[in-house]
Amino acid sequence: MNAIAINGSPRTGGNTEILLKRCLERLKAEKIETEFVSVGTRLVKPCTACGQCAKMKNKTCAVKDDEFHPIFASMVKADIIVLGSPVYFGSATPNLMALLDRAGYVSRANGGLFARKLGGPIAVARRAGQNFTYAQLAFWYTINDMIVAGSTYWNIAIGRQAGDVKEDQEGLQTIDRFAENLAWLAHKLQA
Description:
With about 190 residues, this protein is α/β, with parallel strands linked by helices. Helices cover about 45% and strands about 15% of the residues. The protein has one domain: Rossmann fold (3-Layer(aba) Sandwich).
């Protein structure tokens, strides 16, 4: 089993990264291979709705950039996909959404490459907006026929400056339980 965590934040070492890596540490402790990818500072071009992915049916996107295809290949390989984003004006970051829009279209055009993979979103904000961002990312999982793990609360945390989330004990406990549930599901499905 392997997992990928995709960070939508442009801040290296920021709150979203802290939570994603915490989740991956717990998955690794459960003998799940992990990979961390950050798209926050990488230019993933947006979907142009050209429809070529549906015509080509070769697991590629016609939009040209250097970022999409290696990340998409890791997503297809992964059994678990965890997405994390800070809240930008009430939603996930544009770079993350560009990746997800394209990945979703290519997956669906090729028979549902993400179907029955496990995962779930993580959202961080200084004050508010986590629930909408969490829901926005959760919609991506469900339209891609994926299995979303729950937790003791929604996978959200509070923090502005890098490291602030380490003070959000409920947020940390929620992420820990989320990771435990992902590992539990992965091992049950593997059996």
